[in-house]
Each structure stands twice: as C-alpha cells, then as structure tokens.
User: Fold this.
Amino acid sequence: MSETIKVSPLKSITGELAVPGDKSISHRAAILAGLSNGSCSVENFLSSEDCVNTLRGMAQLGVRFEVKKGTDDLPVDLVIHGCSGKLQAPAGELDCGNSGTGMRLLAGVLAAQRFDSTLIGDESLSGRPMDRIITPLAKMGAQFETRGVKPGCAPLQITGGELKPITYEMPMASAQVKSAILLAGLFASGTTTVIQPATNRDHTERLLSSFGVNVKTEGNTISIDGGQVVEACDLVVPGDISSAAFWIVAAACAPGSHLIIHNVGLNPTRTALLDVLLRMGAKIEVLLEHEDGGEPLGRIEITGGKLKGTEILKEEVPNLIDEVPILAVAGALAEGVMTIRNAAELRVKETDRIETTIRNLRLMGGEIEEFEDGMVITGGRTLKGAKLESYGDHRIAMAFAIAGLLANEGQTTIANTACVATSYPTFAHHLETFCQP
Assistant:
C-alpha cells in the first residue's frame, strides 16, 4: 500500500463488496489450529501483517502450514497442521509486529511451555502495556521480564512451565487479556476462571468450542478445564465487521447511498456499531445467513440519509473500541451532539486514539471537546479536506480516508498509511473502486 492516501469528496457510496476475513478470528484460528491434534483447513484467513505475524510465530514454534490460495506472505486459504499441543522452542525471537492481540495471546500459550521465549514488536507495540497479562499469567506460575523502554512493555521474555489454575477478576474489559488466561488455562492442572467486568468479544470461547474444548460461561464468568484436547476442525473466517465499519458509516452518512456488504461476521459482541448507528437514525438492514465455527455471518444493507448525534453508552464501549474513530467522524457529520465517554482504553491503542481522532477532526473543521476518557462532538459542521497524519495507526488512517470522502469540499491527504496493511490490506483497492468516475 502507498504511504499516502488522497481522497476527494463523493456525493454517494453505491455498490457491493466483501471485506477481508476477521482479524480477531484469524489470530485465534492460527493459534488453536496450531495447537490442535490434526490438520485444519482455514479459509478466508486475513492476510494482513498482524495475522501473518501470528501465523509465522506458530511456525517458529513447530507448526506447519500449507497455503492453498494466496502466497506464504499473503495466505488466504491454508491448511494448518496441528502439533497436538507440543510446541518446540523457537530458534529466535517471535516478532509480533504491530499486533497487541498476537503478542498477548501468544504470551498465554508460551506461559505454559517448558522453554524460554521472547516476544518483540514494532515501536508502537513496544509502547503498549503488557502488565495486564503479566499479572494473571505470573499468578499461574509463569515468569516474565519486560525489556522495553517503558516499564511493563515489550520486548517480553517468558520463562514458562507447569501452570496452576486461578480465578482472576479482570480490572478492565479486555478480550485479549481474557483470551491469554483461557489459552494458558488449557495447559493448567485444574479449572481456570476469568471474571470480566463487562461482556466483550467472545471469539476465543466460540472457537474453543468449535475445536472441541469445553468452555463454561455463566454471565461474565468464563471457566476452562486444563488438559483438554484441541480437536482439529475446518473453519471459514467471516468478513471483519470492524473493517466493514468504515464503509457502513460512509454509506449511512451520505444521502443517496446504497451499499451491500456480503459475508460479514455478525457476532453479537461485535455489532454495537450497528446499534449506535440505528440509534442515530441510520437505515440499515441485517440478514443473518448462516454460522461457521460458531460465528454468525450474513449481509448488511445500508441506505444513506441524515443522522443525529447520540450518546455511546458505557456498556457499549468495550464492544466498539475499534470503531470509535469512525463513529467520531459520523458524529461530526450528524445533527446535534455525539458523546463518547468511558473510553480511556483508547489512550493505549496503536496511538492515543482520543488525541489523534480529535486532532484530525479539528483540522477538518470539526468541533470537539476533549476529556480524559473520551470526547463530546458538536455535529452539523461542514468538514473540509485537509492534510492529515495517521500517526501509524491503521484505524485512524481509514477513518479519515472516509472523512475525506464525506467532506464538503477539498482534497484530504493522509500521510503514513502503510499501517493499513496490518488489518485491511485491500482497503486502497476498495477505496479506488468507489472513487472511480
């Protein structure tokens, strides 16, 4: 992908598309198929840098895979040959690139291995907090050393070994932390229990069940018994609703638009974006078509119109944390006020997404008040094209490419956009398709 995205305003967004495979599910599929007791076909794997780094990490640990569609660098359909939970010591460091999901989930697996390992990442990942997984995994018996410039940050050196089960009450709603503990719990001698403060993404629980692992969920309490066999199975990864979110907002905000997005994952812990947009007056129809790997998927049809501001509820925030930047764009274009609070987690993503979202919206003419845990946007302003920076954050880059499409006038240029390849490698192609006269 080019280092720069340039877009000019469009009157409407019309057509059909299918977004690439779900990022969260692709990470987990690579790990669980690698731990399984046989060969697993995985179709529509997200061939983004983040997911490929997780797949390569599993390969360094002794898991073999064959690409059936795509290339080794850009796999789409592949067969992963599981190692029956018997991983090998890696010859070198495992590079997670930009992926917090990859690093935190792999740490859960590596905590249980009887060898030392080191997880590294790029500059952005090396500034994100790892104490949130180190604390529970250390309680289980693993040893960690963080060698980052910032305390508690990667590089992350892990001395694994025999783990004991724990009951852990999470201080924050984080699917990555929950998943790291559950994956470690697979190897522990007894029942490991996680209590989450709010419902969040449950892809790990669903996929574990598809791989024959019994996971018990009662409200916000999830338990797993150690010593279970990960049974090989075949998966088709649904399209990523977090990637579809950019086009859903683009079409919903532009009167005269009509867009159909096919094969989208409709996991109820991921569809808060749709709830918020419907509350804003968006015209969206969802057709649930079937399930694969425990994940519902279907079609989303959007008809453009005028939106009104709304308040994002505290309980909604954990399930749309990736969609806040694009929802902020929708808020700037809507009539009335959009309130986004209780979202301090955005401060420790690929960038400080509260700061970077506000900075770019203000450059385009938006009116926003900043808070430590979010923002309040006064909508109805005219957005104008501007020269913007992605700050190396893929979701900021894509959100403001859409803002440029929805601006009233002027070209928008977003610099440093190679980061988009970490989650949506075909974004530029889809963007060009809509921008063709």
